[in-house]
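Progress note, project year one: complex with S-adenosylmethionine.
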Amino acid sequence: MSNGGKTPAMIRHVEAGQLCCDPVWEAAYERFETPEEEIAKFIKRLRKFGVDQLDKQSSVIELFCGRGGGLVALQRLGFTNVEGVDLSDTLLESYRGPAQLHLADCRSLPMSDATYDIAIVQGGLHHLPNLPDDLNESLSETRRILKPGGRLYVIEPWMTPFLRIAHAITDQPIVRKLYAKGDALATMTEHESETYFQWLGMPDVLMQSFSRYFDTVQCDMSWGKLAYVGKPR
Ligand SMILES: C[S@@+](CC[C@H](N)C(=O)[O-])C[C@H]1O[C@@H](n2cnc3c(N)ncnc32)[C@H](O)[C@@H]1O
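Model obtained:
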């Protein structure tokens, strides 16, 4: 990742035995997009949310940050006070940059109350195994670490006609053979299928969880994605 070449400063809040990771899923995730493609996608998403218009001194935490492409995107948009949390040390170790990293479980965050102005989640909540309990814990913890008046920005997969068609296409063996990106996506979907389809199958329950902890500022469900902005209740 061409973001300064600094090795990550990682605080380990969980023991190695508590880690959750699937090497096949992680390899497919690495194949799906190059880091630069991923960073460009994140910058586009953040701009669409209007995050680029916010105070660049804001304290920002990206939850479920994976290998940290979103942290690089925030850095490139000018944010200087950025932290990331993920449960995979392998993915966190591939991040290069100045953000403070935390190896921790987003259902039980090690940060103090009312610490951050902005929390961001890009595609992590659908990895939670027990819904809606794990989502409630993650959202409750996110609300706790946000300052009053802070904001939560979420992008997650959402079952829309577009996503149904995308699955139907990438499931075809011929497509998987000819299209490396489609194969990587289908491999990721297979390896996260239990949590992924559980997430896609209960939209009303999920939205109730969001409403329990956050007031909705923006909510868009289109093109296979939920784009949600909330403020702590
Ligand atoms: C689909 S990846 C998204 C990573 C990153 N946000 C991105 O878009 O590239 C989901 C991430 O959630 C992490 N994860 C899953 N369960 C977690 C938990 N309970 N706490 C923290 N991270 C978790 C995984 O290790 C993985 O990096």
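The first strand starts at residue 9 and ends at 12.
Residues 20-21, 64-66, 69-70, 85-88, 91, 105-107, 122-124, 127 surround S-adenosylmethionine (CB under 6 Å).
No further modelling is planned for this target in the current period.
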